[in-house]
Amino acid sequence: MTPHADPQTGAAVKAADRAHVFHSWSAQGLIDPLAVAGAEGAYFWDYDGNRYLDFTSGLVYTNIGYQHPKVVAAIQEQAGRLATFAPAFAVQARSEAARLIAERTPGDLDRIFFTNGGAEAVEHAIRMARLHTGRPKVMSAYRSYHGGTATAINITGDPRRWASDSGTAGVVHFWGPFPYRSAFYAADEDQECVRALAHLEETIAFEGPGTIAAIILETIPGTAGIMVPPPGYLAGVREICDRHGIVLVLDEVMAGFGRTGRWFAAEHFGVVPDLMTFAKGVNSGYVPLGGVAISDRIAATFERRPYPGGLTYSGHPLACAAAVATIEAMEEEKVVENAAALGETVVGPALRALAERHPSVGEVRGTGMFWALDLVRDRATREPLVPYNASGEANAPMAAFAAACKRGGLWPFVNMNRTHVVPPCNITEAELKEGFAALDAALSVADEHTV
What we know:
globular, alpha/beta, single chain, 13 helices
């Protein structure tokens, strides 16, 4: 679809938004949301006719891009057949979505509890772990994001937790591995892995292993920086959990469904968790859907004992029909394979080439269609381009970089001192190169703030 200008409608959309919509994570009087007129594939456009290549995939969820005809058609067909039905019944779209998801999850994660999104999936995974073990505490990494509901926000490690942190939620945070900014003064990945596991072991020992229900980790942390864990780390966590009777929960809300070049990121590491959360890419965000994939061991706990949790829209037929169509389209069109191949042969090499040209790029990391550029003021000291959790004038260098991207027709994913490269998993090589050209120009703006 070709964008066309319609400023009058755009102004009306913006006025209604400003008068009535309360936006998340924002000071309402300080934001100026773009009025979006339409989207297709890897692009969206505004009412002034400006088109943007979306390197954010919405919020890292349009894994097959916007307006995929097969998914749109499936939603329309399901709406005509059975638009909604209560979760206590067996419904074809729900059953088929669960079957297709279970076929792709690792190990014995064959039972699917559907939620409306990722935060609720985390909420229920933690509830299941606590009920299964009879223990109160949950451990999670400081560099993490798990959602905005009551339990999920307390489990989250990033600053969005602070305003809602109850201090009584039974959550213990620890440092996960991150070689570029090591908390353990590690010299390399192997040392980082050994020291991070030793730190986790010691934290468990001091907290009391018998008090810990679960350790929850993003398989590859997303919003916190796309830090691919070093070889052996997740396997080491799995062994620690097994030794202490702790439930291992892997959060694949962002990393799942092709994003890392595999159906689930856990496949890269050969690790099977006890519970796995998902959302976002399961149906490319076309209708809200998330869930928990449950192992046989956890499911057995609730075979004769009712699970005390549920949602009115659990397994909503429209959402599940979208999931079925998305998974089938990804399979038919080899979307996962596309993400893996282009990540290895195009994205990684192109981003490393940008790093060589731009002193503001401290590190490139990622896999598939899941990458981050760590932007710095000084490569030698690795000082971030802006301070941790910067805002206002302190964040000016990143704001200038983001503005330069948008002027070049690229919509960036910017968080703290990083820009993430997370386009749709079915993006083409030509589209990627278009985005990298815009990114190249914008990084020159970031370079102006280096020493």
